[in-house]
Design brief:
Helices cover 25% and strands 20% of the residues. The chain has 122 residues and is α+β, with helices and mostly antiparallel strands. It has a single domain, classed as Herpes Virus-1. The strands form two sheets. A three-stranded antiparallel beta sheet has the order 1-5-6. Strands 3-2-4 form a three-stranded antiparallel beta sheet. A hairpin with a 5-residue loop joins β2 and β3. The protein is globular and about 30 Å long. Bound molecules: zinc ion. The site of zinc ion (ZN) has 7 residues, from loops.
Length: 122
């Protein structure tokens, strides 16, 4: 995976107004989450046009930032039909849990939620 990720120092520190999706770790400006939802998991998170959902489904508490250039394999693939992350900026670690309704929806799909607050060992 190392060849597919590049550390972006300018984003690694500061930029705390940006928020990371609790489910896939994608980092965006909160207004983008609100306008467009999360491009990876909007189907589950339903953040579009809801500031409350953005607050519940994303967090400013994340560590490390990587650019995912060619995201083929990830656990997101387990629920996405496309089996791909969108290209973008992702947090390495995210603190917090997804809302219960999203967790239930994942369970309904036979997917066990894996909190993102630990180093990703994939
Ligand atoms: Zn997401």
């Amino acid at each position: 995976m190392a060849s597919q990720a590049a550390i972006i120092p300018s984003l690694a520190k500061g930029s705390k107004q940006l928020r990371a999706c609790l489910l896939c770790s994608l980092i965006q400006h909160p207004l983008d989450f609100r306008k467009h939802g999360c491009p990876n998991c909007e189907e589950l998170m339903q953040m579009k046009n809801s500031g409350d959902r953005v607050t519940a489904c994303t967090t400013t508490y994340y560590d490390g930032v990587i650019a995912v250039i060619d995201p083929e394999k990830s656990w997101v693939a387990k629920w996405q039909r496309t089996s791909k992350y969108v290209r973008g900026i992702y947090a390495i670690r995210v603190r917090g849990r997804i809302p219960e309704d999203v967790e239930h929806e994942l369970e309904n799909r036979g997917i066990r939620y894996r909190p993102r607050d630990q180093m990703d060992q994939d």
